[in-house]
């Protein structure tokens, strides 16, 4: 069981899947910053994001998302989903926590089937105590979530309004989480954004040893749904040889009728391709 | 059975002798059904074309400003040419204008000439490396004198007594040169630091007045060498950046033992691979690459020319 290490989590992009975080906000502005940071880092890493919140707060976060994650596009492509608390958690106290667990598992599975390497959830939790009936029930719920999320690989941040918490309760809640989600984080080196039509991915930024495995798993998740992949690399400003090798490895693993097509290849990336010569019959370069 | 490769020097005095010897070498090859490749300065290409007449149509000519840009690209040109018609022997004339080369490039050129004897030993190729004895200074002629086991003169290939063991030559050129005290140094021991290394290279490269595409090549080379240090070396991995004479140096230093084989990275991996590209790629991107290992660790120095003087023609 997590004792809550309260570590400073500046590397949201590469969080171990299944990490259960929390954050206590003083006001709406702080909530927006924490949520936008968590959601922005998750989207950039290629994961699907579910934000359980109000329409008003969702709009605020969309406006606050960093430009490199193209929040509105993510919404259209289904990489970013917004749900109300009632839709996500119901309006009646669940009969038992197993029902809740099944719901979580189904959501994670649906995310995989939709072509995402992982699911991350940011949720405003202020409705949970009224739903479950007591602060103690909320603690029990959170404890269950820590184990369950680790098991199914769903990372989350539970967003609590401090004004609605007893001080003692807040401390107990914090202890049920792996740490606090940060208000600010460094811009990730690259963003991997899902595209529905044509099926594939858009890459922005630089890919090297620090994030090429993240790209690899994202491409594999997209390819698992449909093995014809359009990868728009117009925004890819740097790629090392290991990155090109991974693109080739994805193409190599595709079935006979599959292909990975690189679109709008910038000169800098073409240069590496020319020198490294990692050609493959299923790795196409659109001219 | 494939005959082993030959690698001969030619020390010519004047265009007449050049055309007779190099032209004769190519004609002999063509008469035996071999393919012919010439990497040479433009005026030598012209002289050979004139000497060969219609036979010149059978020869592939690549100017030295392309074939040797950078110098290790010559290996690639050679590999690609030989690889495009397996089973047919190639005769190759390989010469570049050495006059405009920076000292670091000349050290690397000596490595290139020495290593050819080992790297291409089994290749189906006859190589002739002409040196302009009439105009080159002694220290440049001397490179050719010690790296060819035979010399061509009057149409005859005779053994060269001054030939040195190529691996001894390479070992003698792998001394570690520590970074100067004025170098800018950053710790790049974590994967996320590789992006910082690129940022430093880009800003310092621009300050040094280098063209953006040159800076991009150096940033890529530094990335690959640093990635090697992180994957195969030992921490800390450091990047030092400094000017050293005619070249700007990006110096990657880690605490590991480094590659034991001095021939690593002279040719690309035979099959597409997850690794093995670092040093080879660096040599395709930079003016010169020094690799040295001692008790302080592994040092890879990537040189970029900062003087504007082009290859002297």
- State the CATH architecture of the largest domain in chain B: 3-Layer(aba) Sandwich
Strand-pairing-aware structural class of chain B? alpha/beta
- Multimeric state of these chains? heterodimer
Please indicate the count of domains of chain A.
2
Share of residues in helices of chain A: 40-55%
Overall body shape of chain A? elongated
Query: How far apart, in Å, are the first and last alpha carbons of chain B?
Result: 40 Å
The poorly predicted ranges of chain B are 309-313
The DSSP helix count of chain B reads: 10
The count of strands of chain A amounts to: 12
- What profile does the largest beta sheet of chain B have? 7 strands, mixed
Structural class computed from helices and strand pairing of chain A? alpha/beta
CATH topology of the largest domain in chain B: Rossmann fold
Strand order across the largest sheet of chain A: 1-7-2-6-5-3-4
Note poorly predicted spans of chain A: 1-10
Which CATH class of the largest domain in chain A? Alpha Beta
What is the domain total for the residues of chain B?
A: 2
Q: Whole-number average pLDDT of chain A?
A: 91
In short:
Chain A is of the alpha/beta class and 287 residues long.
Could you characterize the architecture of this molecule?
The complex is a heterodimer of chains A (287) and B (313). Chain A has 287 residues and is an alpha/beta fold. Chain A has two domains: 7-180, P-loop containing nucleotide triphosphate hydrolases (Rossmann fold), CATH 3.40.50.300; 190-285, 2-Layer Sandwich (Transcription Regulator spoIIAA). Chain A is built from eleven helices and twelve strands. Chain A has helices spanning 28-44, 55-64, 71-76, 85-89, 97-113, 128-132, 135-152, 167-175, 212-225, 241-253, 267-276; strands at 7-8, 20-25, 48-52, 80-83, 119-124, 155-161, 179-180, 190-195, 200-207, 228-239, 259-263, 283-285. In chain A, strand 11, helix 11 and strand 12 form a beta-alpha-beta unit. In chain A, helix 9 (212-225) runs parallel beside helix 10 (241-253). Chain B starts with 5 loop residues before the first strand and ends in an 8-residue tail after the last strand. Chain B has two domains: 6-172, P-loop containing nucleotide triphosphate hydrolases (Rossmann fold, 3-Layer(aba) Sandwich), CATH 3.40.50.300; 184-305, Histidine kinase-like ATPase, C-terminal domain (Heat Shock Protein 90, 2-Layer Sandwich), CATH 3.30.565. Residues 309-313 of chain B have low confidence and may be disordered. With 313 residues, chain B is α/β, with parallel strands linked by helices. Chain B has helices spanning 15-31, 42-52, 64-67, 73-83, 103-119, 138-147, 166-172, 193-207, 212-232, 278-285, and strands at residues 6-12, 35-40, 59-63, 90-94, 125-132, 150-153, 156-159, 184-187, 238-244, 247-254, 288-294, 297-305. In chain B, the strands form two sheets. Chain B has a seven-stranded mixed beta sheet with strand order 3-2-4-5-1-6-7, sandwiched between helices. Chain B has a five-stranded antiparallel beta sheet with strand order 8-9-10-12-11. Chain B is elongated and about 60 Å long. In chain B, strand 6 and strand 7 (156-159) form a beta hairpin. Chains A and B meet through helix 10 and helix 11 of A and helix 8, helix 9 and helix 10 of B.
């Amino acid at each position: 069981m997590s004792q809550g290490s309260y570590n400073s989590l500046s590397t949201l992009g590469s969080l171990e899947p299944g990490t259960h975080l929390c954050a206590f906000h003083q006001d709406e502005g702080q909530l927006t910053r924490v949520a936008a940071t968590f959601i922005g880092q998750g989207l950039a890493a290629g994961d699907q994001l579910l934000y359980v919140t109000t329409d008003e707060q969702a709009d605020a976060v969309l406006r606050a998302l960093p430009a490199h994650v193209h929040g509105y596009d993510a919404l259209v492509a289904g990489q970013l989903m917004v749900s109300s608390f009632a839709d996500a958690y119901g309006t009646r106290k669940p009969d038992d926590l197993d029902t809740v667990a099944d719901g979580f598992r189904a959501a994670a599975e649906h995310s995989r089937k939709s072509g995402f390497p992982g699911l991350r959830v940011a949720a405003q939790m202020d409705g949970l105590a009224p739903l479950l009936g007591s602060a103690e029930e909320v603690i029990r719920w959170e404890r269950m979530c820590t184990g369950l999320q680790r098991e199914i690989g769903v990372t989350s941040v539970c967003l609590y309004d401090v004004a609605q918490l007893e001080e003692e309760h807040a401390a107990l809640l914090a202890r049920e989480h792996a740490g606090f989600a940060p208000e600010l984080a460094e811009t990730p080196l690259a963003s991997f954004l899902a595209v529905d039509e044509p099926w594939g991915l858009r890459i922005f930024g630089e890919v090297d040893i620090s994030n090429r495995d993240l790209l690899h798993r994202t491409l594999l998740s997209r390819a698992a749904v449909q093995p014809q992949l359009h990868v728009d690399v117009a925004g890819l400003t740097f790629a090392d040889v290991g990155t090109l090798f991974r693109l080739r490895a994805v193409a190599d693993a595709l079935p006979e009728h599959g292909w990975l097509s690189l679109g709008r290849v910038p000169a800098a990336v073409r240069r590496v391709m020319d020198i490294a010569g990692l050609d493959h019959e299923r790795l196409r370069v659109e001219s | 059975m494939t005959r082993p490769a030959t690698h001969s020097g030619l020390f010519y005095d004047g265009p007449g002798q050049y055309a007779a010897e190099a032209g004769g070498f190519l004609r002999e090859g063509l008469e035996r059904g071999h393919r012919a490749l010439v990497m040479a300065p433009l005026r030598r290409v012209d002289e050979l074309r004139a000497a060969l007449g219609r036979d010149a149509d059978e020869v592939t000519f690549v100017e030295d400003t392309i074939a040797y840009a950078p110098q290790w690209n010559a290996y690639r040109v050679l590999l690609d040419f030989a690889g495009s018609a397996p089973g047919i022997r190639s005769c190759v004339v390989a010469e570049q204008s050495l006059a405009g080369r920076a000292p670091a490039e000349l050290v690397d050129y000596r490595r290139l000439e020495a290593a050819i004897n080992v790297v291409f030993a089994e290749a189906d190729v006859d190589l002739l490396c002409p040196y302009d004895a009439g105009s080159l200074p002694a220290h440049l002629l001397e490179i050719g004198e010690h790296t060819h086991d035979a010399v061509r003169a009057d149409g005859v290939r005779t053994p060269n007594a001054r030939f040195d063991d190529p691996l001894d030559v390479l070992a003698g050129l792998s001394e570690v040169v520590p970074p100067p005290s004025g170098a800018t140094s950053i710790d790049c021991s974590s994967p996320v630091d590789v992006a910082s290394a690129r940022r430093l290279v880009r800003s310092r490269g621009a300050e040094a007045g280098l063209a953006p595409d040159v800076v991009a090549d150096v940033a890529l080379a530094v990335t690959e060498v640093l990635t090697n240090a992180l994957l195969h070396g030992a921490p800390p991995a450091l990047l030092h950046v400094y000017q050293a004479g005619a070249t700007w140096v990006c110096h990657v230093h880690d605490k590991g033992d480094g590659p034991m084989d001095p021939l690593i990275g002279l040719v690309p991996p035979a099959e597409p691979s997850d690794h093995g590209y670092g040093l080879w790629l660096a040599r395709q991107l930079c003016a010169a690459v020094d690799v040295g290992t001692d008790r302080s660790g592994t040092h890879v120095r990537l040189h970029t020319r900062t003087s504007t003087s082009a290859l002297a023609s």
